[in-house]
């Protein structure tokens, strides 16, 4: 069975900049999974540091309200990997999931770490590049012209360990 992972779609990230295209793609994929009666699992990153926009008690830690009602499950995490010290593996096992689809934020951290961890645990992984986003940019990494989503997608594709698609390719292959 397939399951959709919606990673860190939380106020503290979504409100950091314009993610309208990413959020539109994520919502369309969520709706496709719902239409097929497939599970949608939201991951929520929680920080202990009070100054973090994702601090447990902050408004920023809450799921982005327009998408939150779609969640069949919500699992909290405290590291970039959605699998590390969480109930994600148990939830996927209970649902008999063998194929996970990765969407959400931050592409080069939580989405990447979760994709690799899923592969390491034996899941088939589909990473939907333009249904991920990041608060970081070329200035963060001091690399002019860096397209973080494209870079991560290309690196994952070249590993030949997981499927990397754009939203339109997802529609062609899975609808």
Automatic annotation (TrEMBL):
Residue ranges annotated for the Isochorismatase-like domain, each copy included: 3-141
Keyword tags: Hydrolase
One GO MF term attached to the UniProt entry: hydrolase activity
Keyword Hydrolase applies: yes
Gene3D superfamilies for this protein: Isochorismatase-like
Membrane-spanning ranges: none
Family: Belongs to the isochorismatase family.
This protein's name: Isochorismatase family protein
The organism of origin for this protein: Filobacillus milosensis
Biological classification of the source: Bacteria, Bacillati, Bacillota, Bacilli, Bacillales
